[in-house]
TrEMBL record:
Superkingdom per UniProt: Bacteria
Organism: Pantoea coffeiphila
UniProt: substrate binding residues: 272
Stated name of the protein: Peptidase S11 D-alanyl-D-alanine carboxypeptidase A N-terminal domain-containing protein
Residues covered by the Peptidase S11 D-alanyl-D-alanine carboxypeptidase A N-terminal domain: 81-300
């Protein structure tokens, strides 16, 4: 294969191929432009690995879509990346990976991390992270951890109700329902989605329950932006956390990370699962040589263990390039 000409005009449309290598350019505001290439992407710069080659097709267990994005973690402008995708034509259910977007929107509002959030009946939700009772409270700081580790749907709803209401109040609307606050929050999520450049992605809930869809490229863009939020990265790197619950029965709840690759592979430094059975998703952030971060996403696996198997296979496909000597 021949090296790509990275200075060619950027193409705004997503590839309609099932397997492709694309070159990305990330602007200072976090927007990514994509160019389809038939070979590999290489730009000069001492922060980049040498001759990053096109990754051959990876055999996936059952994931419907998958992708790999390499970004520069070092100082200065973010340079070129090489991305491998499978199944990039279709929108996939994001499930609890939706909470990444909820966490970013909350962080953008710069809340006081010591502020307490109190659960009400309006925040009720089935599914993961059901560790808070009505009238109990946690801090904003702990809410980030409860979103990212046990993937609490109730916490996502609390955030949407409270800060959706604050957004309405900032717009001069003081008489609103909990439902209207939730709708306003989701509108803020979709505005964030558009600012990142996630294409035709659409979110309808803060938790991932319901219909929340994006392409694998959109998911990679979301994860790429999330790596720029220290609060999110701190939570992603945490295996277990002591959640302080306030209320009639004050207590410490130990919550655990659901990303099994985080501690089985020392170079995996973060990420988020998404589950809406029978759909199983995974995003992983991997530390690579030369101040690089590797972002790997698998979407739509049919079994929980397949998302980890497929993600690991793609990580290994990239690692071999650093371990195999390159011809001069």
């Amino acid at each position: 294969m021949q090296p790509c000409a990275c200075k060619e005009k950027m193409r705004p449309r997503i590839s309609r191929l099932s397997h492709a290598i694309l070159c990305y350019q990330l602007s200072p505001d976090g927007r990514l432009s994509v160019t389809l290439k038939q070979g590999y992407c290489l730009k000069s710069g001492n922060k980049l690995p040498v001759n990053l080659l096109a990754i051959p097709p990876v055999a996936l267990s059952s994931s419907k879509a998958a992708g790999i994005l390499l970004i520069n973690e070092g100082p200065g402008p973010v340079r070129s990346k090489a991305l491998y995708t499978q199944g990039d034509r279709d929108l996939q259910q994001m499930a609890s990976m939706t909470k990444i977007l909820t966490a970013m929107v909350l962080a953008d509002l710069k809340p006081d991390l010591t502020t307490l959030l109190t659960r009400t009946d309006a925040d009720s939700a089935l599914g993961s992270g059901a560790n808070l009772n009505v009238s109990e409270s946690i801090s904003v700081n702990d809410a980030f951890y409860n979103l990212m580790l046990p993937s609490s749907n109730v916490t996502a709803n609390m955030i949407a109700r409270i800060w959706g209401g604050k957004l309405l109040q900032a717009e001069g609307i003081t008489d609103y329902t909990d439902r209207q606050a939730l709708v306003r929050w989701v509108r803020q999520m979709n505005a964030k989605c558009r600012s990142i450049g996630m294409g035709s992605a659409l979110f309808t809930t803060p938790s991932g329950l319901g219909n929340n869809h994006a392409s694998v490229i959109g998911a990679l863009k979301m994860v790429a932006r999330a790596t720029r939020y220290p609060m999110i990265m701190r939570s992603w790197k945490t295996q277990n956390y002591r959640l302080k619950v306030f209320g009639d029965t004050p207590r410490i709840e130990t919550i655990s990370n659901t990303n099994n690759l985080l501690f089985s592979d020392l170079e995996v430094i973060g990420g988020k699962t998404g589950t809406l059975a029978p759909i199983y998703n995974l995003a992983c952030v991997v530390s690579m040589p030369n101040n690089q971060l590797l972002l790997v996403v698998t979407l739509g696996a049919e079994r929980a263990e397949d998302r980890f198997t497929d993600c690991k296979a793609m990580i290994d496909a990239v690692k071999v390039q650093y371990q195999t000597p390159k011809a001069s």
